[in-house]
Amino acid sequence: MIPIKRKWAGVEIMKRYYTLMIIPSSRGKAKKIVLSNKTVRFLFLSLSVLFIAFTLIFLDWLRTSYAKIELRKLKAENAKQKEKIRMYEDLTRELQEKIRSFKSYAEKLNVFAGLQSPYALKEVGSGGVSPNDVGTLLSSSIQKPTLEKPEVLRKTASEVEQNLKILDQFFQDQTQRLSALPSIWPTRGYLSAFFGNRRDPFTGKIDFHPGLDISTQLGNKVFATATGIVIAAEYRKGYGNVVIIDHGFGFSTLYAHLSRIAVKEGQKVKRWDVIGYVGTTGKSTGPHLHYEVRRYNQPVNPLDFILEDFSL
């Protein structure tokens, strides 16, 4: 720093200056830059302002970058949550379907066994795990459905599936008794009359209809709905050509209005054996099969025993 004398209004004033020397490393002329104290302060303030400005810009960039990173994380987490919700919905539907299937089979088995409770199945079988235990396990595991993790639902669905397998095994263990259950449709067509009270198509009066009427094409095959022995294969007034099969365990089935009978009295038949063909014999308004199920000679609703889906 070099002090320089200046005169102002006859007064000699000393002013301070800063000299910056730039000396090249090689041969060359040195350069000298003289800066006043005011200029140095201005440069210092300017650099300070620039430093603060760049610092603020950098901090804002960091904040924005962090916010973008957090946003990406939130989007990724949101996608995961949506996937978990989708998995939960799929597993819930699967679980509900298995529960419905279990209840349907249990209830139909109860009708077959003549039991009161959907899970009171101990009397039917002997030995092993009873469906009563299955029902208890299932009802306890699904009694209070709540929002659970997919892993928990998957475990519950697996338990229900195992219970269904146990019930299926129970069915298989009861082969002889189940073979007497009229569990299939006797022919393909559409239901034109149901079991119960209805208006008689001939008299117009309300009377009791002891079976199902299945309208279909003339000559369609009629199947035995369970294993048994043919106890009647003849023509009867009103019924026309009729086949009656005794299945044991109190069950019998009747197939009426046949165009032709394909079995003989005393013949043993199995489920799905053709016993005749759809016709219009007897008291009939058109081609159809009149089908009855009786238990201890009392008419019961055939739909309570049919396990397969109905299709044309």
At a glance:
The chain is of the alpha+beta class and 312 residues long.
Task: Give a topology summary.
Layout: E1 2-8, E2 11-22, E3 31-36, H1 37-113, H2 131-142, H3 150-173, H4 175-178, E4 190-193, E5 196-199, E6 206-209, E7 212-215, E8 221-223, E9 228-236, E10 240-248, E11 251-261, E12 268-269, E13 274-278, E14 288-295, E15 298-300
Antiparallel strand pairs: 1-2, 2-3, 4-7, 5-6, 7-14, 8-13, 9-10, 9-12, 10-11, 11-13, 11-14, 14-15
Helix pairs in contact: 1-3, 2-3
Structural write-up:
It is a single chain. With 312 residues, the protein is an alpha+beta fold. The protein folds into 3 domains: 2-60, no CATH class; 81-178; 190-304, Glucose Permease (Domain IIA), CATH 2.70.70. It contains 4 helices and 15 strands. Strands 4, 7, 8, 9, 10, 11, 12, 13, 14 and 15 form a 10-stranded antiparallel β-sheet that branches. The chain has a 3-stranded antiparallel β-sheet with strand order 1-2-3. A two-stranded antiparallel sheet has the order 5-6. Strand 14 and strand 15 (298-300) form a beta hairpin. The longest helix has 77 residues, at 37-113.
